[in-house]
Specification:
alpha/beta
Length: 407
């Protein structure tokens, strides 16, 4: 049995439980001073304070009085893509909007072209490098979407890459099928046929492949209407894929559908209206907010405080992608959660750990430092939780531990 004992933890900060926290509960964090954690065969065996137990054969890690938290959970990424889109920066600086670029053949369609041309090996190598960087910032679990293939062959290819990475990289990955990311160029004059293709041809093969757990759709102006999105998500349910939805990023459409259909999460929600918040609260939907996208687009920030007040669980993630948010640093997301969403450090910690885990149906396995969960920890170069929220621009992840092994 492989054992790892983390001792001399100045302050252990963690949410508790196996489900998303909402309302006042979102800000409830357990703090343990002078703590220790014992991990056996990758699973947390015990957590305590005071005298450190003598554990025969254990590798000992001295936290040197620093802060320890659960590993961070990045619950929304577009990890699998070919190429980059740095050429769009100048267009944005000259006033072109996200939809302007997309409608001119850039944006998602540009990445789709590059993704279709890339081999599985090329996509895996690119994504593996990104995962290494993510883990260096303290992320230990990642959701990864398909959605840049936009053809059956290439969507399945992307999901195979995610499976390969989950099998061979230290990071744990969860796959989301997102064939409904954009109507590709070849179907622009026949969008109904593309929706049919996603629902009737892609979905059965995705189910047969057995890799994806979720189905996502980009419900937005110039992508998929509310009714098209409903059609896609209901088809996903038919094939055993739990619904997620990109909603209210640019226009306020989609969040009400999230509540009506019982999506596990609604994502973006930059311009989410009160009726959307109410629908999500009623439907038990987790709001997965992406503040780095608002930052990168120069957009407003999602009404996170209103969501917490309404009892909607709030998670936060990077939205790592080659266009609207080429950011894979969850520490920056933590900073923005406090500075732009006005969430407390305690609410932010829950958002990037337990609630993020719940948004990908893994709250029973990750997201908190508790017996029986995976031994995923971050030892921070920080004395307390406030410090990692307060410091901007530095990597404060001193030591990352994944499944009981030092990364």
């Amino acid at each position: 049995m492989k054992k790892l004992l983390v001792k001399n933890i100045g302050l252990l900060a963690t949410p508790e439980g196996k489900s998303a926290h909402r309302g006042e509960e979102q800000g409830k964090i357990k703090f343990l001073k002078d703590a220790w954690v014992l991990i056996e065969d990758g699973i947390i065996a015990s957590v305590g304070t005071g005298a450190v137990p003598a554990v025969e054969g254990a590798e000992v890690v001295d936290a040197e009085g620093h802060l320890v938290t659960p590993g961070l959970v990045d619950a929304h990424t577009h990890l699998i893509f070919g190429g980059w889109r740095q050429n769009e920066l100048g267009l944005k600086l000259h006033g072109a909007s996200y939809l302007d670029i997309q409608n001119a053949g850039g944006g998602i369609q540009s990445t789709t072209n590059a993704t279709r041309q890339a081999s599985e090996q090329e996509l895996a190598a690119k994504a593996s490098k990104a995962l290494d960087e993510m883990m260096g910032f303290g992320t230990t679990t990642v959701e990864a979407k398909s959605g840049y293939g936009l053809a059956t062959e290439h969507e399945l290819k992307a999901l195979e890459v995610i499976k390969d990475l989950n099998d061979h990289h230290r990071m744990d990955l969860v796959a989301t099928f997102m064939g409904a990311h954009l109507v590709p160029a070849e179907y622009k004059s026949n969008r109904e046929e593309y929706v049919r293709l996603v629902c009737e041809e892609m979905m059965p093969k995705v189910k047969e492949q057995g890799i994806a757990k979720f189905c996502d759709v980009f419900c937005e102006a110039d992508t998929f209407t509310v009714e098209e999105s409903r059609q896609v998500l209901e088809a996903g349910l038919k094939y055993g894929l739990r619904p997620k939805i990109h909603a209210d990023e640019i226009e306020a459409i989609g969040s009400q559908l999230a509540g009506e259909i019982g999506a596990i999460s609604a994502e973006h929600l930059i311009v989410c209206p009160p009726e959307g918040i109410a629908s999500m609260a009623k439907g038990g939907v987790i709001a997965c907010l992406l503040p780095a996208t608002s930052f990168n687009l120069g957009a407003v920030f999602a009404p996170a405080r209103d969501m917490v007040k309404a009892g909607v669980p709030v998670a936060m993630a990077t939205d790592f992608n080659p266009g609207s948010c080429p950011c894979l640093n969850m520490q920056f997301v933590i900073n923005l959660g406090c500075l732009k969403y006005k969430l407390t450090p305690e609410e932010v910690l829950t958002a990037v750990t337990l609630n993020g885990a719940a948004a990908i149906d893994l709250a029973d396995k990750v997201g908190s430092v508790e017996e029986g969960k995976l031994g995923d920890l971050v030892i921070w170069d920080a004395p307390d939780l406030d410090y990692i929220c307060y410091r901007v621009g530095s990597n404060l992840a001193k030591t990352v531990i994944k499944r009981g092994e030092i990364v």
